[in-house]
Write a structure and sequence with these properties.
The protein has one domain. With 432 residues, the protein is mainly α. The chain contains 17 helices and two strands.
Length: 432
């Protein structure tokens, strides 16, 4: 019997990611240039140099701040290198595995195995060696979900505050985590909490969750005298998500990143991510406004096309198709093969777990269902690649032991029923 299951999950998850880093990491001493990865590194270096949240001395409004600050902590601790990022993010992934195991244990006795499933989930593991916010977001996402579930069980206000603080940090990493507190409020309404409790919890959740983002909005107001500005990247990516090319890009299983770069997909105005890192804050706002205005003018006049590519995005979450997140990625053929083989059972068993929890009217199941539905819908509206689905896959991993246990119990019951019917038929024949 394993005494400390969660420690084993942590160690295995970290080791798997470090081994993959040894096999596949880019060992070049040079950082990438002219890409979003280079911008994140530049922002982290700006923080360390005392220039604040700036790129080449220019204050930035495009990027959310948590991941660049996370990189700055890594660089200050272990140095400015690929390996330092891989190590830190592998440890973070190990922590995610532990909390996935804890969530899984809420639904089945062997739920801790959910952490082991995530530990060996290769597509998530490969991102621990990348300069993306995925590992950090998954950690904040599953930890917030766990502490919301804890509050539902214990009604300890400290659990609610901790869940809200994690969500608050997560919003400044990737704002889509906002679906978690919204799902929590929906959960309270669904299970019919008394109104005083609903109002009290909603108030605590809203105040704590909005606290850190509000500080960042005030920082942006001091720079621009514009209110409210969280991050301009959202408007830019909405423009990438709603245009005349996105339908063909998704049909051809290509990356949305090529829109505006590939001559097949010209855009007007052709505003790239790098264009937000070469001008001052007010010019950044003007460029984001151009993107927002383009979306507002295009979507109302192309409702049928919007519906078609929204259904394609929905299919990505319901199925296991691979949508690349960059023009060129290392080992792309290997990524595609691994993703197709592994993601199919994770997706099937994950959605099955959600449906079973709803059918059994599990009180935690309502919350999990609200989180999954909200997460899917916010990505159907915005840009989506297979990388953006990893947090949902992590939550699905937490449900897999429960789904397998339920399927096994159902098979046993069917066999017992078949045995009973066979025995009954034999008795009928003997009596005749």
């Amino acid at each position: 019997m394993i005494k400390n299951k969660y420690f084993v999950v942590f160690i295995v998850a970290v080791l798997v990611r470090l081994i993959l880093s040894v096999l596949f990491i880019n060992i070049s001493p040079e950082w990438p240039t002219g890409s979003s990865k280079a911008h994140r590194i530049g922002l982290a270096e700006g923080i360390l140099s005392g220039e604040g949240f700036s790129y080449n001395g220019i204050p930035n409004l495009y990027q959310t701040p948590v991941y660049p600050f996370f990189l700055a902590i890594i660089f200050a601790t272990l140095g400015n290198h690929w390996w330092s990022i891989a190590l830190f993010q592998s440890i973070l992934e190990g922590i995610s595995g532990v909390f996935i195991a804890k969530i899984g244990s809420r639904f089945s006795k062997r739920g801790w195995l959910a952490g082991m499933i995530y530990a060996f989930y290769p597509y998530a593991a490969m991102h621990s060696r990348s300069i993306f916010d995925t590992s950090l977001f998954v950690a904040l996402f599953v930890m917030a979900i766990y502490y919301y579930v804890m509050f539902m069980d214990t009604h300890q206000i400290l659990d609610l505050i901790l869940a809200s603080l994690l969500t608050s940090l997560g919003i400044l990493n990737r704002p889509s985590i906002a679906v978690v507190p919204i799902a929590f409020v929906c959960y309270m309404l669904l299970i019919r909490y008394n109104w005083r409790m609903i109002l009290y919890c909603t108030l605590v959740c809203f105040v704590v969750t909005s606290s850190i983002p509000c500080l960042w909005i005030l920082r942006n107001y001091n720079l621009t005298k514009k209110f409210p500005i969280l991050a301009l990247g959202g408007q830019h990516w909405m423009w990438h998500a709603h245009n005349e090319h996105i339908l063909n890009v998704l049909r051809r299983n290509e990356s949305p990143d090529i829109i505006g770069r590939d001559p097949r997909y010209p855009m007007t105005p052709n505003i790239k991510v790098s264009d937000f890192f070469t001008v001052g804050p007010l010019e950044q706002i003007e460029r984001s406004k151009l993107c927002a205005d383009s979306v507002k003018s295009w979507v109302p006049n192309h409702k049928y096309e919007v519906l078609k590519y929204s259904l394609l995005k929905l299919k990505l979450f319901l199925m296991w198709e691979y949508v690349p997140g960059a023009i060129d990625q290392s080992h792309q053929s290997l990524r595609l093969l691994i993703y197709k083989i592994i993601n199919a059972p994770v997706t099937i068993l994950g959605w099955l777990g959600v449906m079973i929890l709803l059918l059994k009217r599990n009180k935690f199941g309502y919350f999990i269902a609200c989180v999954t539905i909200g997460f899917v819908m916010i990505h159907v509206i915005s840009i989506v690649t297979s990388r953006h689905k990893i947090p949902l896959d992590a939550l699905f991993c937490a449900l897999i032991p429960f789904s397998i246990h339920y399927l096994y119990s159902a098979i046993l019951k069917l066999r017992q029923a078949n045995s009973y019917l066979s025995a009954h038929n034999c008795e009928m024949i003997d009596s005749q």
